[in-house]
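Subject: Predicted fold for General substrate transporter, 522 residues

User T.R. writes:
Posting the sequence so we have a shared reference for the thread.
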Amino acid sequence: MGALFHVEGVPIGITSVALALIASMGGFIFGYDTGQISDILLMPDFLLRFADCSSGATLATATDTCSFTDVRSGLIVALLSIGTLAGALMGAPIADFLGRRYAMVVECGVFIIGVLESIRGSLTATYQLFITFGILIAYCISIGTRGYDGPSSWQTVVGIGIAWPIILSVGILLMPESPRWLVFHDKPELALQSLGRVHGMTREEARGHPLPNKHLAEIQSNVDFERQSIGRSGWIDCFRPQKKVLYRTLLGMSLQSLQQLTGANYFFYYGATVFQSVGISDSFITQIILGAVNFGCTFGGILIMEKFGRRRPLIIGGIWQSLWLFVFAAAGTAKVPQDNPGIGKLMIVSACLFILGYAMTWAPGIWILIGETFPTRTRAKQASLATASNWIWNFLLAFFTPFIINAIDFRYGFVFASCNLLGAAVVYLFLYESSDLSLEAVDMMYNDPACKPWTSGRWAPAGYSSRKDIEEQGKAAQAHKDFAPGEESRVENINGVSEKTTNNGKIEGVNGAPYSMAPQAE
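User M.O. replies:
I've generated the structure tokens; pasting them so everyone works from the same file.
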């Protein structure tokens, strides 16, 4: 089979890339649905059929004589979120029962499946990239069909959307199952094969290579410890304070809510209407520009999340987004945009610069964190709760935005600007830096009483002197060698006590508990 390329000495197979791309088709579907509604709301035939029109309105005059009530426009845009909310909540128990492939929910599936910590951020961020790609494609198709006569102007856009879930449903069945799910269901041989495919190895190569076997041992240790000490999880376990499970549940829900409160979907859902209101003659073109900025900058976001971790980009991004939303709102409030073309252009530039920051930080970053913050035992359910929070706020903003705009107009931007500052503060005070750590090590970090969110970037698990050391051991494993037997090093355990350990290619946790789950549950 062979590795496609190497990252920090770790082989990456074509299956890893294919998994990210196929799973991210769920993001494309979401993005396509998000992008199409903004332009469809302005199409003459759609207005004539579903909006309130004055007597004598025709297809030629619908744009000027028809308009949606606040309730109707809010419901048309927001109903998408109701279905996704239900899917997010049902996804966890179905995925736990059937496996990740057969029960793939786009919000949770790609984050639950086990992927390599060395490229986990990039693979998960691909989901967000496909969301932005779907939005851009929807904008482009809409501008191509807006000239069609009759219902085909908007029905074509909706009909094309049928192709995307077909691609997802067929492609995901060709991918390996989650190794963590397989181990949970007593299928370690298949789990090793799955890990081997991710690294570009055949079944025989995976059996003799230390890298997939090391990952399998960590997962097996984690599962065994949970079975012996904790047992199966239920929804109530997501709200237990032990091992900071409740802490992480509330953190995930807060971050997903705050992602919606950045204000990005204000532009994606109602952008065409907003830009039309500031005096732009062709708001469809402006939407494509905004979508292109969103899509292009997401590539930068993938690189930023890998190079600078999670905390720093989210803090800087929140401040940057807040700045440009303040400019957007202040400009639209100071003068009437329709009477001042310069103000309208400033608002468009501000919106583009806001989207630039969002696409490079909060858009991919929050989805990455949902995949790497929660403990294995409750990860699926916590991811569902966090994603459900996203969709609840998605619905609320989509439904109430028309009412709010009518009440406070562009001052709405001040609300979003304040929420972005709040988001930056939440990240600084509560989020731990999880980049370059295995999912099991992230669980240890959250349970280390000596580790605080603002110092978490320097934390490393027992047996490693730093996160750079993790990379070096990964390279050593790739070279089919490990640290010399009997090599001694002093490490700091989870309770802050310096201990002497012996590295024989194995890392033990605290007080006899396995590496992946220390400390023991109370």
